[in-house]
Amino acid sequence: MEPEENIKPHAIMIPAPLQGHIVPFTHLAINLASKGLTITFVNTQSTHQRLMKAQSVSGSSLDYDIFTEARKSGLDIRYTTICDGFPLNFDRARNHNQFMEGLLHVFSAHVDDLVGNLVDSNHNPPVSCLIADSFYVWPSEIAKKYNLVNISFWTEPALAFTSYYHMDLLRSNGHFGSQDNREDMIHYIPGVQAIEPRDLPSYIQDPEPWSIMHRYIFKSLEDAKKADMIICNTVQELESSTISALQEKKPFYAIGPIFPNGFTKSVAPTNLWVESDCIEWLNTKPKGSVMYISFGSLANISRQDVLEIAHGLLLSSVSFIWVVRPDITWSKETDLLPSGFEDDVKDRGLVVPWCSQIDVISHPAIRGFLTHCGWNSVLESIWCKVPMLCFPIFTDQFTNRKLVVSEWKVGFDLCSGRILRRQEIAQKINCFTSEANELRINLEETRKQLEDALSENGSSGRNYKQLVCDLKSKILQKSKINNTSLL
Questions:
Q1: Does 21 share its domain with 142?
Q2: Which residue has the higher pLDDT, 248 or 297?
Q3: How many Å apart are CA 371 and CA 131, to the nearest integer?
Q4: Is there a single domain that holds both residue 462 and residue 415?
Q5: Which residue, 126, 136, 168, 193, has most beta carbons within 10 Å?
Q6: Are 474 and 409 within one domain?
Q7: Residues of 125-157 as b/e, b for ≥16 C-beta within 10 angstroms?
Q8: How far apart are CA 376 and CA 296, in angstroms?
């Protein structure tokens, strides 16, 4: 039996095939490899094809290795792809429910084949760990079958995780699972002082939580409870009581914020869209004068919402960059903006289909971020000390908004409800730009907490070390069952 300190963990990492999950997974793979782990990173073939297309790699070759650059610094990261059960030309966005049914019922068989082959291939070091996205329904079964340490990676804040973790508590208290859900304040979730129902993840708020998405997400969270360890892209100091309560239930490691080294573009491609270069345009704008507007890579809004935002921008006086993805609405219409909009704002506005968000929000011309409150966007905004104007759309974004607006006070709500009105948008944007300096005072403090956490002796630095130590111990325990070599 090998001494624990000589164990070299070899982890298979499998992110959910979504932009907001691929980004932190890729950065985490590089971070863990820099701490001595061997990583085999697995993307779906569809995800890989989109990454290659966005990078303009000829033929979207399936044998292209996205970690070639990372390995030049000595990191042991291997790369492979897996079929998700659908042909490459299948439109996953337009056939969303069918795709989710496939992930629920079919995808696990492909994962089983892949993991089985990797375990049986005499890799050096041998595969000993599975780090899977918490939004998968199969990790506990696969990890158990191949005697792997099962680590669930939660890419959202701890507050969202504990909301799902305590769904039975919410149900028994009448705040979840019926058309007559209570609307009063919730005070009984361990580690959460108080939360309004409107701040729970949208799938818990829904009065009829029975769609394929509800079934899938609830099953995946039940599976995550079975993990040996849970790692989370958050910071101990920002969610201390919530994390402490979760740690009484399960080994839970806050190791965020998970960024590329130096907060620059990743050495591995993570974008699923071709990026427009906005920097030349931003360079012409005064410091702190531009509003960045983006609703992330997945969320959809109605065409009416797009029109209201556009008219709100016309009524306001702000300069802006607005990311309008081709698939931002469910509509197949291509002309989403009002007629003549881009001409009307040509001196102060830039509309792009996608961009490098890190490059944009770290630019000195940016004054604020009108955001859907995706978790990556929230952490990146805090790091760049950019105040947020919040318009959550679905999933954890309502929970993230609570943290941004109520807990950390680094942002404002865009509107009082969920209905956008152009006059209110213009008023909020103009008010926000004039009051952003107050938010920046809180941002300075919150950013320092992120920075301190990432230092070697900071909370996330210590939690990384503890994670690797505990992982080696767990691998040693499992190896005793099979009496296998670990080097």
A1: yes
A2: 248
A3: 29
A4: no
A5: 136
A6: no
A7: bbbbbbbbbbbbbbbbebbeebebbbbbbbbbb
A8: 9
